[in-house]
Recover the amino acids of this structure.
């Protein structure tokens, strides 16, 4: 999910979709372009994608990040992007692609799940309100765009199991958007503080150790009921991570840390 400036909305390629707008699309294994969309991609991975992928692949978060991602800090940015590493073959295929299709389909990432739609947010600077914006952007080679089955953003999200992913993306976007400002000071975006924040968002195994095996719980009065859930459920742990990043990097208190 990207932040989109209001004045840029009309310049973005693809068709903007308002609530209730209809687009036509269908993807089937017998379609001529089957799997063409799963190669040579700049595929962004978000924190909730890692929670789902690590479970599916039976790997730790460190292993997923190490084996399957490139962590890239773009010039002028204060938090890195995490991209899926494509296979080292001529076509640069997705590492999860097999002849029969996607091998992680039930836990495929947000970007795969929402394709051929894309989502961003528009920020009203004065009120701080984030408004979701949606686009229909199938590539030219995608034959699914000539099919007649009709969808809206809402019905497509439900069909693809993307509703909860949208919710988690919204929660993450509210954190990520804060990184328009530099919180790192002299330590810089690759310093220890930045590595800790990255861990809280993308490495729930290490963050869990940090919460339960350091002095974290002496410093923060995390409500007991929430802490119990976070101990068992990585999604709740991720929410604690998001709350901690907001406090640690920007000084914003939150109920998850017992501060409101
Ligand atoms: S290119 Fe489009 S129609 Fe073809 S497999 Fe991908 S999503 Fe389906
Ligand atoms: S994860 Fe699955 S759907 Fe997504 S690009 Fe890879 S093979 Fe395609």
């Amino acid at each position: 999910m990207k932040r989109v400036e209001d004045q840029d909305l009309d310049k973005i390629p693809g068709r903007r979709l308002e609530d209730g707008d209809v687009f036509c699309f269908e993807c089937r294994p017998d379609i001529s372009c089957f799997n063409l969309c799963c190669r040579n991609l700049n595929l962004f991975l978000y924190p909730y994608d890692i929670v789902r992928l690590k479970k599916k692949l039976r790997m730790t978060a460190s292993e997923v990040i190490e084996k399957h991602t490139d962590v890239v800090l773009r010039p002028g940015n204060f938090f890195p992007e995490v991209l899926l590493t494509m296979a080292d073959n001529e076509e640069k295929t997705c590492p999860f692609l097999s002849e029969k299709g996607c091998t992680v389909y039930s836990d495929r990432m947000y970007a795969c799940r929402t394709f051929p739609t894309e989502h961003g947010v528009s920020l009203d600077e004065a009120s701080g309100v984030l408004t979701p914006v949606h686009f229909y952007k199938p590539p030219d080679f995608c034959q699914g765009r000539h099919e007649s089955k009709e969808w809206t953003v809402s019905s497509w999200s439900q069909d693809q199991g993307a509703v909860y992913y949208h919710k988690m993306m919204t929660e993450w976007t509210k954190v990520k958007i804060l990184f328009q400002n530099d919180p790192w000071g002299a330590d810089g975006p690759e310093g220890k503080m930045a590595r800790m924040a990255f861990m809280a968002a993308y490495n729930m195994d290490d963050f869990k150790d940090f919460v339960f095996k350091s002095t974290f719980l002496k410093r923060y009065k995390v409500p007991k009921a929430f802490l119990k859930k976070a101990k068992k459920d990585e999604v709740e742990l991720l929410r604690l991570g998001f709350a901690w990043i907001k406090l640690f990097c920007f000084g914003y208190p939150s109920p998850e840390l017992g501060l409101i």
Notes: The pocket of iron/sulfur cluster (ligand 1) is lined by residues 27, 31, 33-37, 142-144 (CB under 6 Å). The chain is about 35% helix and 15% strand. The two ends are 28 Å apart (CA to CA). Residues 87 and 95 are 5 Å apart (CA to CA).
